[in-house]
Structures are given as structure tokens and as C-alpha cells.
Design goal:
Length: 137
């Protein structure tokens, strides 16, 4: 990593690290599909973020963010950036109940990335919090 020395107005020295592109061929893709948005993060095997994107970052606003089409568009954009970094095969971890779940997986396949594994990591409560008291009318 190279470091740049940058002087500010009060002459305090700050070190700025420059990101180094590593040649990664195998990565993990985390898809979080909520009811309002779809978030996509591609990490290396250590868990460091390489590329990320979302339906909102792809230009969708409001109710259109939560559509399968918005998720597909976001994944295509993220997959293109990932291919530029050298990623060719991914493991997909899907989380959440949103409508962008299936569209995201199909878009990864259509983008030319080799999917080795698909895992659903949606958290499921075993018992959950205590129920509220019974309503009296």
C-alpha cells in the first residue's frame, strides 16, 4: 500500500491509504432483499468488501426500488464491476424476504459469473420476543 502525505490548513499531517486491487477470482456475494430495497455486496474470502451496490444506488427511487427489475439492474452493475476486478466465480448468500431475491440470482447467472453455491441465510426466530398482552374489548 502506498501512502500519501496530505497537509491540511493547520498543517497537520494525515496519511491517506490508496486502495490496492488484488487479483481475486473467487468471491462471495451477499444479497440482502428487504421490502424497500435490495443490497448487493461482493467480498473476498476474508470478508473484505470488493464491490457493492443497491437498487437505490442504481437510480431507482421510492416503490420502484423494491421490484425484481431494480434488483436485476443493480446486480448487473455490481457484476460488471466485479468482472473488472477479475472475479469469475461466486458463492451467493441470500438474506431477507424481499421481491429481489430470485431476480438477483438470475442476474448473477446472466452476467456470466459462475455460481458455485446458493445459501439462504435469512434469520428465523426460534421463539421470538414475548407476545403482547391479550386485547380486552
Amino acid at each position: 500500500m502506498t501512502q500519501k502525505i496530505k497537509k491540511t490548513k493547520n498543517q497537520a499531517i494525515t496519511l491517506k491509504k490508496k486502495a490496492v486491487d488484488k487479483n481475486i477470482t473467487y468471491a462471495r456475494a451477499y444479497v440482502t432483499a428487504t421490502f424497500n430495497n435490495t443490497l448487493i455486496t461482493i467480498t473476498d474470502t476474508n470478508g473484505s468488501t470488493v464491490v457493492w451496490g443497491s437498487a437505490g444506488a442504481s437510480g431507482f427511487k421510492g416503490a420502484r426500488k423494491s421490484t425484481p427489475y431494480a434488483a436485476t439492474t443493480a446486480v448487473e452493475e455490481v457484476a460488471r464491476k466485479a468482472k473488472e476486478k477479475g472475479i469469475s466465480s461466486i458463492e451467493v448468500y441470500v438474506k431477507g424476504p424481499g421481491p429481489g431475491r430470485d431476480g438477483a440470482i438470475r442476474a448473477f447467472k446472466a452476467a456470466g459469473l459462475n455460481i458455485t453455491m446458493i445459501v439462504d441465510v435469512t434469520p428465523i426466530p426460534h421463539n421470538g420476543p414475548r407476545a403482547s398482552k391479550r386485547r380486552r374489548v
